[in-house]
Structures are given as structure tokens and as C-alpha cells.
Write a structure and sequence with these properties.
single chain, mainly alpha
């Protein structure tokens, strides 16, 4: 039996690469999956070549090639493409349950682990009784150590375990990998020590090499003890004892060789001290090996060393007592053996230089735009939409609403139109009435109200159905607990996060129904007046009283002043119309620019400047995005300038209107006509406000319906998983009962990952926090100001 340890492969299972990659390309990119058929096939072939577990030198290159392709693939695809990879713990029994993660980074880390395991097994398979075999074994061990070092520093930092993961791969943690790295280094150094012994190097040098071996074994032991209990407990029971025995063996060997050096230099007291210490260390290692059933080869090695030490110690004590009479110094007084380490973590060139592995080979998804660049395009488009909406469209709407509110408060332009047109209807009012008639305004509002009410009922029904699913699961859980012992949390604890989400959604819907009621009350208040706007011109004109006072009036001086102020006021109103018209044109230009704006060519050009194997993040393109968004600064500046002009113009309108009102002769008929026109104008404004509220309400409920449907599905999946756990626990207890009755053990032989078996192993049960659902902000209030009309009401 060999006296070195080798690392086993992490067992893996088949995974649906073809289906999941095609789905991702279809749904998340602009490319067609058929364009990447050869890439997907090559991916499957590369992975299959790395799962044969063949321990041959020619098995190294497939690992290096697959790793290089994975690194490049991670520049094109995100780590999570909904493709699950399942790997068992390297030191778990063959029937153990694997850990499954949707992570290309997990696949990469596991491949590197298995490459290091392959190097260690190649080293262990060498014949170390020859110098060539020792040299090859040492080289393989150093490559294994280098691969572990590369895994620890390059791959593990990019392996993030999602919070909802049922279990994390404890054999892919920094301290554990560090311990294996030190172990490979120690065994490589041991090969160098063995070569030095075989070549009869000087005792002093051999002692230093042995001290280096002991130091590396000690480092491995410390790293194992600093690793998590979950990781170290899965090691074979004899491993830690093996490593510790090796540590004591080579401490003793270093002292033994140094004692021979002391003897040659006639330092008999120092020789005796080193032999005493060496014998104590060897004896400690031997007893440890015997107690822990360490492998026979290791036990025999330290037993042989102990026999030699005891023989030399007896000789040295006799010679010193009879001949030399040297004082024996304490252990603290002698110089420790200097450590000389002649090996290193040798990272294979195929890992440090990926291009050397790929050469002229086809690079997977080489023509695809990297995920970082794609995400940068998506982020830019989102930022662009937000900028145009928040800083251009909404700001323009707020300015228009502010102008409308100011004019309504001043009874303009109704006051002017009542004076300028003593009979008939103003053209502006006729235009607004025609718009309501053509849109079949009242019928449209009635249909919208019915739609909103129906959508609200359906949204609440879906939420109730989701809670019915959780209630049903809770009943099943309660019934199962009466039949079998279950260690998982009860339903009211496990589903807490789902219930909390439901409460938030229900609160949002209740607030929305209050907003709906406000809009309905608004419609009931203004329905009759808005219906008047649908009348034909003659009927509508009959509702507006005529004025008997002409524009000339009774007093010539008063008339002149009124005309002057009226003309000034009309001019200011026309200037305001010009500002609004220019603002609308500016918004239209901004929207056309946004519709035609495509940042993809610039992103692709910028991405092409990076090395092909460099992983590019969306943040890399932040400068490009900022430069492109700067194109909209001129529109924002134009709105700002228009806002200043409008504020000045509104102040002038207020001042001139006061002068206009003070100069007018009081006339009841004029006032009545003015009020009637103002009321109809306000009815049109309320019509626009109500339709806008209802359109936003329909949009809100449609979006909410999608969110609630996903939430209901999350509840269903969670409930199904809990039901399967309970069923499996019941079956496990039945199987256990049968096995106890029959007195035989029938271990399972899974052909694939059996993740559900974790519940029977008393592992933590999943909670509802693993099932995410979208959040929606509460609907805004139903006030008629511009800011509230941006979102829901």
C-alpha cells in the first residue's frame, strides 16, 4: 500500500447543456440558437471527455481545453443561465447526494479540482523506487499544488453561492483547498528528499530537506484544522492521522540526519540531544499511527525510523558515558534544523496562459456579444428610457399642467372668449367637445371603469388562490406530523416570507381599490357635464347664455382700457401657446431620438478592444453610456429654458388679467356666460384626467397580474417541494423499518443527483425565502396634479 495520499475526483452527473443553452440564447440574446449548434455540441464533447476519470497523462489536455473554453464562455454568458451542475463532495461516499448549483463558475471550479486530483493520482501511480519515477511524481505533485493554488486564487473568488442554495460545496472553500495544496507540496518535497537520500547527499542537506517536508505537512494539517467542520469531517478517518504521522516522521528524520552531522563534527553532546528528541518525535508519530489505523506503509516507515533511532541512541549514550563525557544540552539550546524547500506550486502553463491551450481551436460562442456588453446595452436602454421619461416627458407634462392650473384659476381663456364672442361658442371649446364626441368619451370611461374593476377582482382572486395553496400545504404538513416524526420547520414558520410577500401585495391592491373608488366618484361628479360635451353644436350653444354687451361697451374710456388689456392678455396667451407648442416639438424630437438611438454598435466596438479572454462587466462601458446619454442634455436644457420663460409669462398673465378684470364693466350676462364656458372647459380637463387615471389603472393591474401569477407559481413549487419532502420522509421510515426487520442494508445506487434525499438525512429544510417574487411599489394617490399622473393615479 502506498505511503502517499492522492485526491479523488469529484463525481458529477449529466446535465442538459443543449436545452438550457439554446433556451438562454433564444430568450436573452438577439442571436438564433441554431447559429451556435457546433459550439453547444463541442461543449458537450469537452465535458464528456473530462468525466471519464481515466488516470492517464493524455487526460490532462481535455481538462485544460475545457477549462480554457469555460473561461471564455464566462465572458459571453453569465454564470447563471439556468443550467444546473451537480457534483458530489470529493471525499463523500459514492452513494452520497450531490450539490447542485446553477453556476458556470461552479463547473469551472469543479473542473479545476478534478484536474488537480488527476495530477495527484498520476503522481501516486509513479514508481518511486527509481529516480525517474521520483522526478515525475514530484513534478505531478507540484502541478497538483499549482492547480489547487490557481483554483483558490482565480476560480473560488468568482464562485458565489446563492443564499437560497440548500448546501454549499465545502470542498471548494479556501482553507480546505489550501490544505490540499500544502499536502501536494509536502509529498513533492518528500520525493525530493527521497532522491537526495538515494543519491547519498550530505547529511546536513538531507536534514534540511526533511525539515522542509515536515514543515509542509504541518502547514497542511493547520489548514485542515482551520477549514470548516463540514469540510474536514468528510475526509477519510485516517487522513489527518496520516498527515500528522508524516509530520512527526520527518521532524525525527531531520534531527536524525542532523545528529549524524553533529557526530562527524565531534559534537557528541549535541548529537545525543538530537537523537533523544528524534526518538521522542518518532515514538509519538508511531503511537499516533497505531491508534488511528494509518496505512501499513506509513506505519512501517516510522517504525523502521524508530528502530534505527533507538539503535543509534543506545550507541551514542554508551559512547558518551564511556568515552566522551560531553554534557547533553537541553533542546532549547541547540540550533533548530534549517528548512530547505526545493519544490513550488507549479501552475500548469495551460491554466496561466489560456491562449497556449486553445491555439487555433474554435472558441465557443466567439461570435456572440459578451454578456457584460449585452447587459451594458440593456442598462443603457433602461437609463435612456428613465431619463427621457423623468427629465423630459414628465417634466414637460408637469409644465403643461402647471400652465393649465394657472389659467383655470384665472378663468382664462373663458373670460376673454365671453367678452370677444358675446354669442356662439369659442373655437377652442368646439374643438374640445368634438374630441370628446369622436372618442365616445362617456362610453369609453364606462368601459375603462368596468375593465379596472374586473382586473382588480382577478388580481385579488389570484392572490387568494396563492394563499389557498399555502393553506393546503399547511394542512398536509399538520396531517403528516401526526403520522410520522418530521424535523423540518412547521409550515407557519417555513412559509413566513411568502406570507409576508402576500401581505405586501394585498396592501398594495387594497390601496389601489381606494384609488379606483376615488376615480369612480370623480366620474360620478362630472358625468353629466362631460355628457354635455358630446352634444352637437346647437345643443351645446343653447346651454351657454349669450351676452348683450358687445365688445364696445357703454363707456368709451372704459371700453378702450378693456380692449387694450384684452389685446395684451390675448397676446400673452398666444405666447404661452407658442411656448407649449415648442415644448411639445422638443419632447417629440427627444422621443424620436430615443427610438432611433442604438448604442449596440458602440458597445460592440468598445468590447472588441478587449482581449478575447478578458471577462468584461457592464461597468466597463460606463464611460460609453455616459457619453451617449449626454446627447439628451440639449433637450433637458431646452426644457429648463422654456420653464423660465413660462414662469415669467404666467406672472405677466396674472398681472394683466387683474388689470383686465378691473377695467371691465360689471354685467350679469357676461359673468353668467363666462362661468358657463369655464365650467365646460373644466369638464374637458376632468375628462382628460379621468381617462388618464383609468388607462394607468389598467396598466397597473395588468402588470400586477403578471407579478401575482409568478408569486402563485412560486407558492405552488414551494408547496410541491414540501409535499415531496414529506412523502420521502415517510418512504424512508418505511424502508428503515423493512431493513431493521430483514437485517440487511440496501444502499441506493443513483444514476443521477437525488437532491430530495437530503430531507431524509435531517438536513435543513428549505424555507419560503428561497422562492422569490417581484416587488411592486404602492400605487400613488389620485390627485390630479402632474406628478401623481406619472404612475398609477
Amino acid at each position: 500500500m502506498p505511503n502517499h495520499l492522492n485526491i479523488p475526483f469529484k463525481k458529477t452527473y449529466a446535465t442538459p447543456i443543449r436545452a438550457k443553452v439554446r433556451d438562454y440564447i433564444q430568450n436573452q440574446t438577439e442571436d438564433h440558437p441554431d447559429a451556435y449548434k457546433p459550439d453547444i455540441s463541442q461543449w458537450e464533447t469537452l465535458r464528456a471527455a473530462c468525466t471519464t476519470n481515466a488516470v492517464r497523462n493524455d487526460s490532462i489536455n481535455p481538462f485544460l481545453s475545457y477549462h480554457a473554453q469555460l473561461v471564455f464562455t464566462l465572458t459571453k454568458l453569465p454564470s447563471d443561465i439556468d443550467l444546473e451542475f451537480a457534483y458530489a463532495h470529493a471525499f463523500s461516499p459514492t452513494t452520497s447526494i450531490p450539490i447542485t448549483l446553477r453556476s458556470l463558475a461552479f463547473e469551472r471550479a469543479a473542473i479545476l479540482f478534478n484536474l488537480a486530483a488527476l495530477y495527484s493520482q498520476l503522481a501516486a501511480s509513479e514508481d518511486r523506487s527509481s529516480q525517474d519515477g521520483l522526478k515525475r511524481a514530484s513534478s505531478y505533485y507540484q502541478n497538483a499544488a499549482g492547480t489547487f493554488a490557481f483554483l483558490r486564487t482565480s476560480a473560488l473568488p468568482k464562485l458565489s453561492i446563492p443564499p437560497q442554495a440548500e448546501e454549499s460545496p465545502s470542498d471548494l472553500t479556501g482553507p480546505f483547498i489550501q490544505s490540499l495544496e500544502w499536502l501536494m507540496m509536502a509529498q513533492a518535497q518528500e520525493c525530493a528528499w527521497q532522491r537526495a537520500v538515494a543519491d547519498h547527499y550530505k547529511n546536513g542537506l538531507i536534514a534540511k530537506l526533511a525539515a522542509g517536508v515536515a514543515s509542509l505537512y504541518s502547514s497542511s494539517l493547520e489548514a485542515i484544522r482551520s477549514a470548516s467542520a463540514e469540510a474536514s469531517e468528510k475526509l477519510p478517518s485516517t487522513w489527518i492521522a496520516h498527515i500528522e504521522t508524516k509530520q512527526w516522521h520527518f521532524r525525527a528524520a531531520a534531527q536524525y540526519r542532523k545528529s549524524m552531522d553533529e557526530l562527524e563534527a565531534n559534537r557528541y553532546g549535541d548529537e545525543l540531544r538530537r537523537l533523544i528528541d528524534a526518538e521522542a518525535e518518532a515514538n509519538r508519530g508511531y503511537n499516533l499511527a497505531k491508534r488511528n489505523a494509518v496505512g501499513p506503509a506509513v506505519l512501517q516507515d516510522i517504525k523502521s525510523l524508530l528502530d534505527v533511532l533507538q539503535k543509534h541512541l543506545a550507541r551514542a549514550e554508551r559512547d558518551n558515558d564511556l568515552i566522551y563525557h560531553n554534557d547533553v544540552p537541553p533542546s532549547s539550546a541547540i540550533i533548530p534544523v534549517q528548512e530547505v524547500i526545493v519544490v513550488q506550486s507549479n501552475v500548469p502553463s495551460g491554466l496561466s496562459d489560456l491562449k497556449s491551450v486553445l491555439g487555433n481551436d474554435h472558441i465557443l460562442f466567439g461570435e456572440m456579444l459578451g454578456w457584460g456588453a449585452r447587459e451594458a446595452v440593456n442598462i443603457y436602454n433602461d437609463n435612456k428610457r428613465s431619463l427621457v421619461r423623468d427629465r423630459i416627458t414628465d417634466v414637460a407634462q408637469e409644465l403643461d399642467d402647471e400652465a393649465d392650473r394657472t389659467l383655470r384659476s384665472l378663468n382664462l381663456p373663458s373670460a376673454l372668449e365671453a367678452l370677444e364672442r358675446p354669442i356662439g361658442l369659442p373655437p377652442s371649446l368646439l374643438k374640445k367637445a368634438e374630441e370628446v364626441r369622436l372618442e365616445q368619451g362617456p362610453e369609453r370611461i364606462a368601459a375603462y371603469l368596468e375593465d379596472v374593476e374586473r382586473l382588480a377582482r382577478r388580481a385579488m382572486a389570484v392572490l387568494d388562490e396563492a394563499m389557498d395553496v399555502l393553506d393546503s400545504e399547511a394542512s398536509e404538513d399538520e396531517a403528516a406530523r401526526k403520522e410520522i416524526p418530521i424535523t423540518r420547520p412547521p409550515s407557519h414558520e417555513a412559509n413566513q416570507q411568502l406570507v409576508q410577500k402576500q401581505e405586501r401585495y394585498r396592501k398594495i391592491l387594497i390601496e389601489a381599490t381606494h384609488s379606483d373608488q376615488t376615480v369612480r366618484e370623480k366620474w360620478e361628479e362630472w358625468e353629466n357635464v362631460i355628457l354635455q360635451l358630446t352634444m352637437d353644436e346647437e345643443e351645446l350653444e343653447a346651454l351657454v347664455p349669450s351676452s348683450t354687451v358687445s365688445a364696445i361697451g357703454k363707456s368709451q374710456s372704459a371700453n378702450n382700457q378693456t380692449q387694450i388689456h384684452a389685446r395684451a392678455l390675448r397676446g400673452l396667451l398666444e405666447s404661452l401657446d407658442d411656448i407649449r407648442h415648442n415644448r411639445n416639438q422638443l419632447v417629440s424630437r427627444a422621443q424620436r431620438r430615443a427610438d432611433a438611438d442604438d448604442i449596440r454598435p458602440r458597445i460592440m466596438s468598445a468590447a472588441g478592444n478587449f482581449e478575447r479572454l478578458v471577462e468584461v462587466n457592464p461597468a466597463t462601458f460606463a464611460d460609453v453610456s455616459d457619453e451617449e446619454l449626454a446627447k439628451y442634455d440639449k433637450f433637458i436644457q431646452g426644457l429648463s429654458e422654456g420653464q423660465k420663460k413660462q414662469e415669467e409669462l404666467l406672472e405677466a398673465i396674472k398681472s394683466t388679467n387683474e388689470q383686465f378684470l378691473s377695467s371691465r364693466k360689471e354685467d350679469t350676462s357676461v359673468k353668467e356666460r363666462e362661468h358657463a364656458l369655464q365650467y365646460l372647459d373644466l369638464a374637458y380637463a376632468k375628462y382628460c384626467e379621468i381617462t388618464r387615471n383609468l388607462e394607468e389603472g389598467r396598466k397597473f393591474y395588468n402588470e400586477m397580474a403578471n407579478i401575482l401569477a409568478r408569486f402563485k407559481e412560486a407558492c405552488r413549487l414551494w408547496s410541491n417541494t414540501r409535499s415531496q419532502e414529506a412523502q420521502f420522509s415517510s418512504l424512508s421510515l418505511q424502508d428503515t423499518s423493512v431493513v431493521e426487520q430483514e437485517g440487511v442494508d440496501h444502499p441506493p445506487s443513483p444514476s443521477g443527483p437525488l437532491r430530495r434525499q437530503k430531507r431524509a438525512a435531517n438536513l435543513p429544510s428549505l424555507t419560503s425565502g428561497e422562492w422569490e417574487a417581484d416587488e411592486l411599489p404602492p400605487p400613488p394617490s389620485t390627485t390630479s396634479n402632474a406628478k401623481s399622473s406619472k404612475t398609477r393615479r
